[in-house]
Amino acid sequence: MIAGALDTLAPPQLVRERAFEEVRDAIIAGRIAPGARLIERELCAALGISRASVREMIRRLEAERLVSVEPRKGPTVMALTRKDAAEIYEVRALLEALLIERFTAVASGDEIAHLERIFAQVRAAAATDAVSEIVALMLRFNDHLVDVVRHDVARDLLRQLNARINFLRIRAMAKPGRIAASLEEIGAILDAVRGRDGARAGALMKASVEHARDAALEQLATQDTDRPSGKRRGSAASRRPTDHQGSR
Amino acid sequence: MIAGALDTLAPPQLVRERAFEEVRDAIIAGRIAPGARLIERELCAALGISRASVREMIRRLEAERLVSVEPRKGPTVMALTRKDAAEIYEVRALLEALLIERFTAVASGDEIAHLERIFAQVRAAAATDAVSEIVALMLRFNDHLVDVVRHDVARDLLRQLNARINFLRIRAMAKPGRIAASLEEIGAILDAVRGRDGARAGALMKASVEHARDAALEQLATQDTDRPSGKRRGSAASRRPTDHQGSR
DNA sequence: TGCGCAATCTTGTCTGACAAGGAGACAAAA
DNA sequence: TTTTGTCTCCTTGTCAGACAAGATTGCGCA
């Protein structure tokens, strides 16, 4: 039996896939500003691919709500409204609570130890104030939960939601005191996990994400204009041209 | 000032949009069998559109998990595994509980009355055993909740999840006794809503969806093969050709 | 019966084309 | 000066056709 000794071969990367990942990453990292238009020609030139492939990629960005497309106007990078952000955090709270609760019920000692190892990395990153590093590690924390719990649906949904708020999470985490609060909350969650108290771990997780939401909304409060209501256009970022320089 | 007197015009229906809706409806209604391959050329012919449009539509079906695409093999209609179904119901339970709880907190008397009117329609349909009618009305029940609560994120996610399990819901609802049980549960939920007891309404909703899940899984238990594991192909439906006859 | 190879499909990608909707510039009219 | 009409340019939506390379299938052969 060879199974286990070899990894399955990575399927040949399709042009449209790589293009999607490239643009998605640029959007969630904020390298393309919210509100910026994505013009097919420019994408073709920047990525070196044909319009057909660009358009297929855009359909996917659209379905994942990373861009919004108005017919005959083309896609613009989605600008997160305050309301969207609040809703995403709410759903995240539910899903992550579910995951940690399940995890507490089914994880082996090793798996819990691995979770704690990730937490240690988060703390290490926190010591250096590497904010986006911290957020990235917290995503790995999540990944471990879904890996263990094997909840594909929750994983997909969280991936989608996290992509939309990634930038906001980083901004929120940069708030003074936020890192320390986060660490403490996660510590408490891990205590509950160690004590195999799933209900408690779930409740703590839910509360933790809701705190994160509050911090994020405060960040947004200063300069966000709730609903992009009808007529008004050109709110700062939206007329800036797309910015591809960051991508290889 | 004219604003407010007029509604914004509906955007012109794009070919790719109509095609998407057509195929999506065929899939969720089961007119195209799970596992069936969707061949581009056949879709072009059946829908009377070009390959480019077909391919853009497929990207969206893919993102919504209605088809799964393997590179260079093309899309096949997603076959719901037992595990997927269980997970979808779990997330649905969380989201719908959230919605009914919010609804209970914010709904006006009129809005509650409208919910009860929809429930009356469900009961009417139940009297005639029109199973798919019942499920459709229950979706409208949901729609009313999200309309009132205005939770766009939850609405999107539920729409996506419901599309994937629609067919299963219908099958589960056909089980003897299931309709009566459902009606009773919804009745209890409405009582809680009327009494403005959000926590109770949420808990009842969660339990109700979980009951539905159990019924659905029983339906699936009889003939489902959990994971489509690697090599094995051609499990009954998957070699059946696509079936477009139902669509205009 | 089982295997290997060639013929046939099918997908992935590119190119080029064209109609029609949107946006901005500019001139004419009130 | 503000409003309206017109023109031009840009961009999207859609189509047709082409071709390489990976998948399938069926057939002949052992």
Automatic annotation (TrEMBL), chains A, B:
Gene3D superfamilies for this protein? GntR ligand-binding domain-like, Winged helix-like DNA-binding domain superfamily/Winged helix DNA-binding domain
- State the Gene Ontology terms under molecular function: DNA binding; DNA-binding transcription factor activity
Q: Which residues form the HTH gntR-type domain?
A: 13-80
Residue span of region Disordered:
217-248
Q: Which UniProt keywords apply?
A: DNA-binding, Transcription, Transcription regulation
- Carries keyword ATP-binding? no
Which organism was this protein described from?
A: Methylobacterium frigidaeris
The molecule here is called HTH-type transcriptional repressor RspR
Coiled coil location: none
One Pfam assignment: FCD
